[in-house]
Amino acid sequence: VEQTLALIKPDCIHNSEEIEDIILRSGFAIIKKRRVHLTPEQASDFYAEHYGKLFFPSLVAYMSSGPIIAMALSRDRAISYWRELIGPTNTYKARNTHPDSLRAIYGTDDQRNALHGSDSFSSSQREIRFFFPDSIVE
Ligand code: ATP
């Protein structure tokens, strides 16, 4: 089995129980879970790879605008399977091309896209440690 880091972002927090049900019904185990309100500094650190991009300041403002839920999810092929389930980054694109995806259903716009999923094994390791510093990620 593999682990990935999932985030329920501020625009989707009111749907978190529904999302957690979907996660469990999709064969994931929720290994760790934490509700957290990131400071702008923490949000900048999490999204450091996007530093310097035009959308970076508003991404940081969005991600620190309210509480989020961080979860370490486990199942086989967790990283790619969770990203398939959430769908394309852009909510409008998700609605056009992947209407059953979670971002199509729960996303707000091109930035506020409800959910996050690690995009590789190395990001899953970094991101799980970011939210759960004492965890051992295999
Ligand atoms: P991936 O790039 O691997 O698809 P992702 O879906 O999380 O991962 P990123 O490109 O890493 O998307 O961007 C991180 C977050 O920044 C997005 O989830 C979205 O909230 C926001 N974002 C990305 N691109 C834009 C954009 N062009 N305009 C506004 N916000 C954006």
CATH topology: Alpha-Beta Plaits
Instruction: Give the helix tally.
Output: 7
**Rg (CA only):** 14 Å
Shape: globular
Bin the strand percentage: 15-25%
GO molecular function, one term: nucleoside diphosphate kinase activity
Keywords: Cell projection, Developmental protein, Hydrolase
Family: Belongs to the NDK family.
Organism: Lottia gigantea (Giant owl limpet)
Structure explained in plain terms:
The protein has 138 residues and is of the alpha+beta class. It has one domain (2-131): Alpha-Beta Plaits, CATH 3.30.70. It contains seven helices and four strands; from the N terminus they run E-H-E-H-H-E-H-H-H-E-H. The chain has helices at residues 16-25, 40-46, 56-63, 78-86, 91-97, 102-106, 121-131; strands at 2-8, 29-36, 68-75, 115-117. The chain starts with a strand and ends in a 7-residue tail after the last helix. The structure holds adenosine-5'-triphosphate. Adenosine-5'-triphosphate is lined by residues 55, 59, 89, 110-111, 113, 116, 119. The site of adenosine-5'-triphosphate (ATP) has 8 residues, from loops.
Protein topology:
Elements lengths: L1 E7 L7 H10 L3 E8 L3 H7 L9 H8 L4 E8 L2 H9 L4 H7 L4 H5 L8 E3 L3 H11 L7
Antiparallel strand pairs: 1-3, 1-4, 2-3
Helix pairs in contact: 2-3
The site of adenosine-5'-triphosphate has 8 residues, from loops.
